């Protein structure tokens, strides 16, 4: 029997979530979402007899008021807050009976912590999107209409609880405080390659403060500025935090410039910033309760000593406020090093928490042969699909392998990866399907101009890339005029190396002809708003933003949708089985349209009647390398001019104090 629930007051940022969320789509930029504090969420479900992952509610700082039209059992867990039924105070962490017509009211958090969880007997009824009912508000899908709850919304329960109800014991409840100790493993990008030893010592020996500008995408921290082991990121950007794009993990400490951000369950899957440490899977629940002003101390632990995340029992150790550790792995996050089967390429296996390995090929440079090696490993793992494998996410020169560490621990995974690597073909044998996808581009679109203006008014007015990103791109690459930027972008053919760079099938792509590879650095700090489908360049890469959100690429324009928000309804140009437009190794070509024409094209795409010109083809690495050899002298001369311009820009930055600039808190 289902029960109707009327939302009298929605609370703050209240959404429907389930656990473990939306799994298996990391490689196309779909985050798992789900509860930020999975321990409290799962325990609330257990209390009312539900499966641990049944859909329930998550609220931030203040909970909802709900009227039930039939008798229902509920449990409120998470951060402490006053809970009443028709004005009568009732406890958290145990099942509470709500009679038909009564109002359950969950007030504001009145102690440490940030998020409140509400489970109802039978779970909430919610349509699944890509296999989960979890709400991803930035993507506008999952949960209740893909958004936070509003007053007047009507919810329903899914049925009858299947288990017995029980109170959650005190020593099962997570320890929620104001001063947090968080277990981390070192890696993937640590000292001495990216950070100095002193940087890592400071990181692990200093309390960081939680910034108020934090949310489900990430928890921003205030703390010491790194000294950095490199002067810059080379082709990836002028800041030493910049790297060629690779996959992230939930719980990674992502340095976007000098700002550390703990990536949350709505965070990006791919990006071009270094992450020196990663929160262990069992401790990631703590991200959901990190309130502004709280302090965080990172505690290095050995990977094999990390407790399991699959359970919410005592072995999870969530009830302990401290992290007990005899020290970390003492390996700088490097699990192993080897060479490719043809002995031409170094292979590095980097730890990302206790449930991911980043397989990284070659030196820190853009080389399509390295992407070919990552593709070969990707294909081999897809073919074998070992038990415990969850996600495979390629980057520019890497492949992230995510596993269920309870079934496939890293100590078993790494030898398996090394064995597979030894059997892979030479990179030059790569021949893959490669479609040509022609898309419209509104040059210097008004929406991107608006984003720059917002950035200047709300974040930073004196940035070198302001007030016009295209002029900055011209200067960075030693071009005579912005017309040259225009010509190069429209002449280029961009090869898609990764998807999900900024969510929802967003490509990270680079021109096949190195003479077209305009190189820039990214915003530091990042923008707080980017229009959907803005097109930008960061490092040597082009990206199409799959949705509104933060961002750091330098704008050149805007295009049509690359994600079918109508899914599972059909839309022309999109394949019916999934909502993303692009594939790995697609080639993007641009054709010019006005802002007005783009507006009409976007309306057609949103209505499902848009047209995308797609032509099948193949990409051969051997043929590409023949092209490079035939044009080597001209390519070298063009790249030398661009590199000289970047060196001049770097000198201007140094003279202006850009590299020692401290971001205000």
TrEMBL record:
PANTHER family: 5-OXOPROLINASE SUBUNIT C. Keywords: ATP-binding, Hydrolase, Lyase, Nucleotide-binding. Residues 27-319, 347-582 form the Carboxyltransferase domain. The keyword ATP-binding applies. This is Urea amidolyase. One of its GO terms (molecular function) is lyase activity. The keyword Protein biosynthesis does not apply. SMART domains: AHS1, AHS2.
